[in-house]
Protein: Sulfotransferase family protein
Organism: Paenirhodobacter ferrireducens
Amino acid sequence: MDGTPDARRLPKLLVVGFPKSGTSTIQRALEESGLVSAHWMWRNRPVGRLIYDGWFSRGDPLALLEGVDAVTQMDFCMPSQGVNLWPNLDIALLLTIRRLHPDCRFILNYRPPKATESSFGRWNTLVERITESDIPGLPRGRGGRPGEIARWIGAHLDAMRQIFAGDPNFLELDITAPDAAERLGTFLGHEIHWWGVANANPDGKR
C-alpha cells in the first residue's frame, strides 16, 4: 500500500468494528504514514452512503471510493438527518466485498465491549442517536440500559471472528496492545509512523 493519489485505486483496507474503538487512531496512523484514508465522511458525503450507493448503483460497494487506500469508519448514525447507515455491521455486504475484492484486508478493531459501551455513553449524543435508530443487531429502543450495547458489540465481534476465521486478510487488532502499531504495519506491509490516542472523550478517557 502507498499513499500516492490515484483515481483508479479502490480501498484495500476496511475497518469493520465499532466507533469509539480506535477508528480515529487508526485513521491518523494511516494518514501520518502516507496513506489516503476515509473516516466517516469522504468528500463531504457519508462513507456509509457511498458504500451502499456503489453497491446498488454499480454493483460494487467500493466503486465510489476511488483514490482511497483505506476506510476506517463506515457507520453514520444521524437520525435527525434521516441517515442511519452501518455497512460495517452488514455481514452480507462485507462478504460481497471480500468476493469482489479478494485482496482487500479487514481489520476488526477491538476494545473490551464494556469499555466501548462506557465510551459510547460519554461521547456527545451517541447513545441517544443509537437508541433512536434501527441498527443491525440493535433494534430501535435498545441500547439505553446497562449492558445492552456491550452485548450487541460482543455479538458482532464473535460473528466476525467466526466468519473470517483463518483468513490471512483479516486481523483482529487490540488498539490498546503495546504492539498494536507493529501488528498493523506488518499486516499492511507498510511502516506505521505514528500511534497514540486520537479523538479521546472530552474527559480525557478512552
